[in-house]
TrEMBL record:
The keyword Chloroplast does not apply. It comes from Ramalina farinacea. Residues 1-21 form the signal peptide. Keywords: FAD, Flavoprotein, Oxidoreductase, Signal. InterPro entries: BBE, FAD-bd_PCMH-like_sf, FAD-bd_PCMH_sub2, FAD-linked_Oxidoreductase, Oxid_FAD_bind_N. Residues 69-148 form the FAD linked oxidase N-terminal domain. Transmembrane segments: none annotated. One of its GO terms (molecular function) is flavin adenine dinucleotide binding. Residues 447-488 form the Berberine/berberine-like domain. The lineage of its organism: Eukaryota, Fungi, Dikarya, Ascomycota, Pezizomycotina. Its cofactor is FAD. This is Uncharacterized protein. Belongs to the oxygen-dependent FAD-linked oxidoreductase family. Pfam families: BBE, FAD_binding_4.
């Protein structure tokens, strides 16, 4: 099960993600020579055939992936600077990556480039007395969670389970150090380089590589325990579930978050002559006393039939592993997952349209029933309370979807069939997304960037109201488009 809520690298939304420069390669020999003479003793250079090359270039998804001729393993700021300068000098396109990296269809444009591999930049420093944590650019979310849990603290996710109490991760950023495209390093806070402070919190991957960031952290809930409630229903219960979700989502208590996952089941309803069907998993987490949590999720008990259910008290740092009947994907948390050919789609939801949600469920069931190679796919919703999210002014950061009621994401896994195309599966991924986006109460398709595909209009990712200011920042800090791999901003808008 792919469970992505708060489980990706910590800086996914707000900071670097993956950053590139696109140019036209003359050859890798000059680049390799430059790197070998410029990197620190702890840095290294890998080329095809070297023992670490395959490991360092293997991605969480091979779908529309970039390709590399050289890997620069960096261990400090000077290595990062040298890698950028060597690539620029050799006219080789480059891409910053961390463990297992991310997904975006636009990455396929970078071929035979330099991978600047930052896995060694994973340092974490917690100051419990000051309620802060400083995380280097390749810090992994699970390591952050464990470091904080050990001292009775917690942190928000990009969007996540605690957002009703504490807001978004970007709202917790106090300061950061970013290497700009010209390789200078600047400190960014609300008072120092405030324009970048605004832009980085929603589009930071357009402006450079974040070396580290300092976040405000919060006291753990009493006893450090959260109520974890799991339910499984047949997909035919979709109408009743989505009606209940429509009624309950706008009034969720601040400590509550609900996630769903619709998946193919190889066993449910399997009888002679009848094909198995998908089932709907629902995970509800309440960051507070069990008695309050059970009351908050009581509406889920009224949906029938319930194929199975489970209530547990779970430490905050183990929530994802325990979600969905212990099927949360710990490999994602540890940046160790490899899914083969997988694509991602998403949509912001401002209102739950019951009929459209049921139609989407039926479309997904049709997809995984008719096309066996798609049966590793999943279809997920995230509805977390948003009181603290909406308490922050809309214009405080570049992030555009602060008012979202929830988010829908689809992960399509093309199992064992590299020739499968959208045409061969009736363009169902796009059709399913449209079913939700057209009825979501939004101004056309809107998408949280962590759930984006790469085929969306730029307004769908950043919001047309934010784009003029973002374009001005792009022109100021990266006029040559060196960091244009991931949802590149224009230098003027409209």
């Amino acid at each position: 099960m792919y469970f992505s809520l708060g489980s990706s690298a910590l800086l996914l939304l707000t900071l670097t993600l993956e950053s590139w420069a696109l140019s036209f390669p003359r050859g890798s020999d000059e680049l390799v020579d430059c790197l070998k003479s410029s990197l620190s003793p702890s840095g290294s250079v890998q080329t095809p055939g070297d023992p670490l090359f395959v490991n360092d270039t293997t991605r969480v998804s091979s779908y529309d992936a970039p390709s590399f001729k050289v890997v620069s393993q960096v261990t400090n700021e000077d290595d990062v600077r040298a890698s950028i300068k060597c690539a620029t000098s050799a006219n080789i396109p480059f891409l910053f990556t961390g463990p297992k990296h991310g997904f975006y269809t636009g990455f396929e444009k970078l071929q035979n480039g330099l991978e600047i591999y930052t896995a060694a930049l994973d340092q974490i420093t917690v100051d419990a007395d000051a309620n802060t944590i400083t995380v280097a650019g390749a810090g992994r979310f699970q390591d952050v969670v464990n470091s904080l849990y050990a001292v009775g603290k917690n942190i928000r996710a990009g969007i996540g389970r605690l957002q009703g109490l504490y807001g978004l991760l970007i709202d917790s950023i106090l300061s950061l150090y970013i290497m700009l495209p010209n390789t200078t390093v600047v400190e960014v806070t609300k008072d120092k380089n405030p324009d970048l402070f605004w832009g980085i919190r929603g589009a930071g991957f357009n402006f450079g590589y974040v070396l580290n960031a300092t976040y405000r952290v919060y006291d753990e809930v009493p006893n450090g325990q959260n109520l974890n409630a799991d339910f499984e229903y047949p997909y035919t219960a979709a109408n009743e579930f989505y009606q209940a979700l429509k009624d309950e989502a706008p009034k969720m208590p601040a400590p509550l978050c609900i996630a769903t996952s619709l998946q193919w089941s190889p066993t449910y309803n399997k009888i002679d002559g009848v094909m198995p069907q998908t089932t709907l998993f629902v995970n509800a987490v309440y960051a507070g006393p069990e008695s309050e949590g059970r009351e908050a999720v009581k509406f889920l008990e009224g949906i029938s039939p319930v194929l199975r259910k489970n209530y547990t008290e779970v430490p905050w740092n183990q929530l994802t592993q325990n979600a969905f009947f212990l099927k949360g994907d710990e490999a994602i948390l540890n940046c160790a997952a490899t899914y083969g050919e997988r694509s991602v789609f998403g949509a912001v939801i401002n209102q739950v349209d019951v009929d459209a949600s049921v139609q989407m469920t039926e479309q997904f069931n049709y997809l995984v029933t008719k096309y066996p190679q798609m049966r590793g796919s999943d279809n997920s919703m995230y509805f977390c309370a948003k009181q603290a999210v909406e308490a922050v002014p809309e214009d405080s950061a570049a992030y555009a979807w602060r008012g979202a009621l929830g988010h829908q994401t689809w992960g399509y896994l093309f199992e064992g069939n590299s020739s499968t195309s959208d045409a061969l599966i009736e363009y169902l991924p796009e059709k399913i997304r449209s079913t939700i986006a057209d009825t979501a109460g939004t101004d056309g398709l809107e998408v949280y960037i962590g759930f984006s595909n790469g085929d969306e209009p730029i307004e769908s990712v950043f919001g047309k109201e934010k784009l003029p200011r973002l374009a001005a920042l792009k022109k100021k800090y990266d006029p040559d488009g060196l960091f244009n791999a991931y949802h590149p901003l224009p230098t003027s808008y409209p």
